[in-house]
Protein: Extracellular solute-binding protein
Organism: Noviherbaspirillum pedocola
Amino acid sequence: MKNYTRRQFMQTATALTVASTCNLDAFATDLPNQRYAPEKGAKLRMLRWKRFVQGDEDVWLANTRKFSEMTGVEVRVDSESWEDVRPKAAVAANVGSGPDIICGTFEDSHLYPDKLVDLTDLANYLGDKYGGWYDSAKAYGMIDKKKWNAIPMGAAGSCMVYRESHMKAAGFDTFPRDTAGFLKLCQNLKAKGTPAGFALGNATGDANQWCHWLLWAFGGKLVDANNRVAIDSPETVAALEYARELYATFAPGTLSWLDPNNNKAFLDGQISLTNNGISIYYAAKTSKDPNLAAMAPDINHANMPVGPVGHPTELALIFPMMVFKYCKYPNAAKEYLRFMMEKEQYEPWQAASIGYVTQPLKAYESNAVWTSDPKHTPYRDLMKVMQSNGYAGDLGYASASVMADFIVVNMVAEAASGAKTPKEAIQRAASRAERYYKL
């Protein structure tokens, strides 16, 4: 099995850049699969989230340089935290000025569909070439199930990240597959002084992912198939009662945790179980700190346990790449997105990230990154099995607003911590959701 080191990541990035310097004057005929001729003098600016995995940034930027050298189109890539990208994208849409391409989160493209360039032809090209889009990619990338106004980069999937030795010391040979066994594991870890910890602050990725998993695992849902608020149910009560038991096993401070906090707590040895992308493993595996490097072999991953509903109820943090209508060079922007999603660029980028981003196109399931290390494999199918955050209703302005307002996360936090009874937390969540889901 091939294990990627930091040095190998940089070699991959350098190789991509060097390879791109050939035949620069022959773009019109030599750029593979060119579909959109960039406008004369085109320049682009892209805004995306800050990397959690260094290999992601290294190779994304190397691929960008390769595109620029082959096309003459200068591309500036800026990055912000997940929490900051969404409001900046909304401001850009409203004022009609800002980055040409923004890689947002969840259903950002559903918030201002009239402000975005139609990408249907590009999406159809990529889907036809690479085995089709997963249903989850279609749900987030398309408006009214007809027009694509975003190209999903992929999704940062959430798995259980745990210390193998601590799990075994807590009496489990393998990671439990159901919620009953999972609670017992957390209780035993707490008794051993190696507790779990899950974000309950307004964490765009980690808190939203595990709180929605919990709600759905017990059969709860914010809205029904007709987009009517349906959170007040016995199933939601059961989920919140379970959350209260689970919270009792957590390390202190999780009510204020944002996305970086559980990473830090895990690597500091404060917790031995959390939900996260593959970034914790990556950080330990590539660290020059001998203590962190020694932790890497003990880190493992498992898919989220299945609750009483009897099937996976996972949510991944999807990244829609949007081109705004104020962009002066839409052909260049579309060509950049096409280039970055092609196999020659996409697969090395995934490999350098050790699978931090799960693919939206089915063909990339065969990327060797998913089997080069069995610890990567649990992340491979997350976009295939995930539910959308608008479940069981439609994605749109209401679901995006509810997600941005952290209604489900806040409900779980209030009930789990005892700040409110499950019923009180549910009623508050329902009242907040009704403001967005008025029919």
Notes: The first strand starts at residue 43 and ends at 49.
